[in-house]
Amino acid sequence: MIASPICTWVQRARWSVAEHDGVIIVAEVTTNHFGDLERLQRMVEIAADAGADTIKVQRRSVEDFYTPDQLAEAYESPFGRTFGDYRRALELDESGFALLDRICAKAGVTWSASALDVPSFRYFAARGHRLIKLPSTVTHHEDLIDEAAASGLDVVISTGMTSSDQVERLLQRFRSSKRIYLLQCVSAYPAPIEDCNLAVVRSYWQRSQDNPRIVPGYSSHDDGAFGSCLAVAAGARMIEKHVKLGSTSWAHFDDVAVDLATGDFHEYVRQVRLAEAVTGDGRKRVNASEHHKYPWRAGHGVHS
Known about the structure:
Helix 1 runs parallel beside helix 5, helix 6 packs parallel to helix 7 (142-151) and helix 10 (226-234) runs parallel beside helix 11 (264-279). The chain is globular and about 80 Å long. By secondary structure, it is α/β, with parallel strands linked by helices. Strands 3-4-7-8-9-10-11-12 form an 8-stranded parallel β-barrel, surrounded by 6 helices. 37% of the residues lie in helices and 22% in strands. The chain starts with 6 loop residues before the first strand and ends in a 25-residue tail after the last helix. The chain has helices at residues 37-50, 62-65, 68-72, 83-90, 94-107, 118-126, 142-151, 164-173, 199-210, 226-234, 264-279, and strands spanning 7-11, 16-20, 24-30, 54-59, 74-77, 80-82, 110-115, 131-134, 154-158, 180-185, 214-220, 238-244, 258-259.
């Protein structure tokens, strides 16, 4: 098994800023903990054991994010019969996030969060988080973009449903952020292979050569590890993958998540680390493993 690259973590009160030489693998829990803190702890432990570098959850102010009509819609779940019952049950409160601080520290991983609205962004900023994600679903929410850009905090921007012109505008808006993790993403669950367009990761990598504040990455909604491995070869330095603990018919986007209960996420991480090792650093050199096939001909022309 390929060992994870060396990573030096600069510890913060509630977030760790990574000075990372390798690919950061994010176990994207979202709300698949279902508000169950024992379930959340188990997910963190398995993801950490698999080799994930960081855990990601999310927060929204349910009453503000959804309309009353949306919350009243029929939706069957163990929490009730409306969509509002379902969404309210999934949100962590401060005790849940405080537990996440402790269990991630114990497991040796960091955690971050997606903020889906202004109150949630302010909440994480007040907790001392140095990096907050803006998922694809909110990159058109001007009030949230204004709040995040004005904060000067580092951000992860997922670019599903985002045109190249919109990407340009977002980069301009976040010019005060020291680091922008810019992730190619396709907002389909699962994303069709023909839509993944991983060449966009290469274009983000090219941007990062002129603008080192940009860290290219890929938020994977496609099945398996194949797309993530190609993204690493294209220059991705952050890879996100949705995870779950067992299959749940009533959960949103359940099909796209990798099951932590089966060992599939361990295999996913292994494949991404292999891709990282195979890709290398781009600097051409003669390796110690190489040898000349015809040593008696060495010096007689160009080596092949």
